[in-house]
Design goal:
- The protein has 705 residues and is mainly α.
- The protein contains 24 helices and 2 strands.
- A two-stranded antiparallel sheet has the order 1-2.
Length: 705
């Protein structure tokens, strides 16, 4: 990265020299060449320099087979896809900030396209590449003791398959829905004089102010559903009296006076949002199946015609092939290129490498299932098979079983590598060993194994029998046990050490807090009875976003700051790193906590409009999202500032304990023991305590010779 920025900087300096200076030079050419006189000569020189830079960039970034360079390519690719996914999320939050479809203007198809593309991009093209492309490619060859991966060119192929799938899925969000639509914006018109209102109230003016006919029309039109004529009382000076208060008689004039506040409030209340009528629609652009490809919408071209749904399926297949090639290469590297001492000694590997190898083995089991489901979908759509068509003997729920057998282990595949990151950062920042390393390792293994057995808790309402739902619920609740073991070990690791408060430690603590809340709310959803009331509501949105956008992404940021000097060879900018922490974590809490209350209220997801009573929580969630986006902006500013300042890193750690760290640890222990002995020296020893006991509690006669 540093060489690339230096070359880019020199490139722009050369452009300046071409147009301004009398002398200029080319890379590899003779210096002090005379200044060209014609504009075409300047353009020719500029193109020559661009060609030299092109060869340099292609050789270093496109044609590279170096595992570190490919890992950094994965990092930059995930940053770009993360920005696109965040842009789609911003569209969603702007749509939900107010009722009445303020962003998409009633275009529910476009809304479905955006949420589908957002989900697929964030899962398949952001988190998976940065964990199994960036971290795995960069660290695993170091940690197993090899120079590179087993098949370097295959490693490059695995990366370059990803942009193809990303381009396909990102196109979905910007396809123009093929239909004619008509809608009216909500307009508030405030004239100075509204003559129609004056004409309506003409009967209440002048001599006929208390006219019975006018009063009856007034009450019938404005204030009552059923009007019965009241009993009249005859007095000397009144022809008719109806018990209607005088203020109520004047009220209509008050609220219809054009320059009053009540007139504005009345117009806002009376304003109606007109419906959007679709007069002509093509199902080519429909993505009503969502990012989970729910059948029968995804398996039948009647609902989603030949078009966007097929593009989505192709993009998922590309992502699956890429991840399969990548993790197979890395697993073969572990098996064939590891040092002799590491062949069968898992405990010698760093935590992050253990968790990455475990999750890559999980990917090896679940990715073919997803690929088979996608191929079966394509066959149902275009080759007249009936795997998921109920009317022809297929099973619609079968696809959900196949998808969630991939989908739920995928959640653990994404979260377990971040467990490894936290397992490494906490003992490093506390200068002590981790509490019970073997328990931490077995906790993630048990969590991974049990994760293959609980996919049915996504399907409580699709018609499963009660025994299956009880089993899925029980095993899901049991997963909280290894998660609790990890929490206890993390807490014990933070005790009795020399704590170094740094940005990595603060990110780690933020990760633990978000993980606790996300896991606790997940236990609610594991219960069948509670899940019935919260299924497909914003409660589910809040839960899995706290686990993915919260815990997983915060863990990824923790690892980036932890390995920053090892990746780029420089120190990160502390000011912008702290701004990133404050805004991102605070924005996450402010975004997703209100969604729990929306879920409690029963507000369904995937609906782009909602009653006005929910506007408060939705507005708070949108505000939190904008704060989160500001935190992401500070992350990119931190990267830019770090590369501009280029402060030299004193040492870089790749997860391997350095000798000076051990020396610091031993010095701390020696000083700690000296401190304890000094404090304990003031405590009387056994002989002194026995003498004092005999002196003050001499209830017996001391024996003496």
């Amino acid at each position: 990265m540093s060489v690339y920025l230096k070359g880019l900087f020199l490139f722009f300096i050369d452009i300046k020299n071409i147009f301004n200076d009398t002398n200029f030079y080319l890379y590899g050419c003779v210096e002090n060449v005379k200044k060209p006189k014609l504009v075409f000569d300047k353009i020719k020189v500029l193109l020559n320099q661009f060609n030299d830079r092109r060869k340099y960039i292609l050789k270093k970034y496109v044609y590279t087979i170096n595992h570190k360079r490919i890992a950094i390519n994965y990092l930059f690719f995930s940053m770009w896809t993360g920005l696109s996914g965040a842009a789609l999320a911003t569209m969603i939050r702007m749509e939900l900030a107010y009722p009445g479809s303020p962003f998409f203007k009633g275009d529910s198809l476009r809304y479905l396209q955006v949420i589908t593309a957002h989900g697929l991009i964030m899962v398949f093209f952001v988190v998976v590449p940065i964990l199994f492309g960036f971290y795995a490619n960069f660290l695993i060859p170091y940690h197993v003791g090899s120079k590179d991966v087993a098949f370097p060119r295959l490693n490059s192929i695995a990366f370059w398959l990803l942009p193809v799938g990303f381009l396909l899925v990102s196109k979905i969000a910007f396809l123009r829905p093929q239909f004619w639509r008509y809608y009216d914006k909500t307009a508030f018109f405030f004239p100075l004089i509204d003559k129609s209102v004056q004409r309506e109230n003409a009967g209440l003016r002048g001599d006929s102010f208390f006219n019975k006919k006018s009063l009856r029309n007034y009450v019938l039109d404005e204030h009552s559903w059923f009007w019965r004529e009241r009993k009249k009382l005859n007095f000397e000076n009144y022809t008719a009296y109806s018990f209607i208060p005088t203020k109520l008689l004047y009220w209509n004039n008050m609220i219809n006076y054009p320059e009053s506040f009540w007139y504005a409030a009345s117009r806002v209340v009376k304003a109606r949002r007109r419906k959007v009528y679709f007069t002509k629609c093509s199902n080519r652009t429909l993505t009503c199946a969502g990012w989970t490809f729910v059948t029968p919408f995804s398996c039948n071209t009647k609902y989603t015609g030949v078009g966007s749904q097929d593009v989505l399926i192709a993009s998922v297949i590309f992502a699956g092939i890429s991840s399969t090639v990548g993790f197979t290469n890395l697993l073969i590297t572990r098996r064939t290129l590891a040092m002799p001492g590491l062949r069968n000694r898992r405990v010698l590997l760093p935590f992050i490498t253990i968790s990455l190898f475990l999750t890559m083995r999980m990917l090896a089991l679940v990715t073919p299932v997803l690929g088979a489901a996608m191929i079966m979908l394509l066959m149902d759509r275009h080759w007249q098979t009936t795997f998921f068509e109920f009317i022809y003997g297929g099973d619609t729920v079968l696809f959900q079983h196949l998808f969630w057998f991939f989908g739920h282990p995928e959640v653990y595949i994404l979260i377990i590598p971040t467990f490894g990151i936290i397992n490494m950062t906490l003992p490093h920042l506390n200068t002590r060993r981790v509490a019970s390393k073997h328990h931490l390792i077995w906790a993630i293994y048990v969590m991974a194994y049990m994760g293959f057995l609980v996919w049915g808790h996504h399907m409580y309402l699709v018609g499963l029998d009660h025994r299956s739902r009880s089993l899925y619920s029980t095993i899901t609740i049991m997963i909280s046990l290894p998660a609790t073991i990890k929490m206890v070990n993390w807490t014990l690791t933070l005790l009795n050490g020399a704590l170094k408060v740094d940005i990595v430690l603060l990110f780690s603590i933020a990760y633990i807090l978000v993980f606790v809340v996300g896991g606790f709310t997940g236990m609610w959803l594991s219960h069948v009875g509670l899940n019935v009331s919260m299924h497909d509501t914003f409660y589910v949105i809040a839960h899995f976003h706290l686990m993915l956008s919260g815990s997983t992404i915060i863990g990824i940021f923790t690892g980036i700051y932890y390995y920053f000097s090892a990746i780029f060879g420089i120190k990160y900018s502390r000011v912008f790193a702290y701004m990133h922490l404050i805004y991102y974590v605070g924005g996450q809490w402010l975004t997703f906590l209100p969604m729990f209350w929306l879920g409690f209220s029963g507000l369904p997801r995937r609906i782009h409009d909602y009653p006005v009573i929910f506007m408060g929580w939705q507005g708070m969630a949108t505000t939190g999202h904008l704060i989160t986006v500001l935190g992401v902006c500070f992350f990119f500013i931190m990267l830019l500032d770090s590369h501009l300042e280029r402060r030299v890193a004193v040492y870089s750690s790749l997860g391997i304990p350095r000798w000076h760290k051990r020396v610091q640890y031993y010095i701390f222990k020696i000083r700690y023991l000296q401190y304890v002995n000094k404090k304990l020296s003031r405590v009387p020893n056994y002989n002194v305590r026995a003498c004092l006991t005999n002196s003050y509690f001499n209830e017996y006669e001391v024996y003496s010779k």
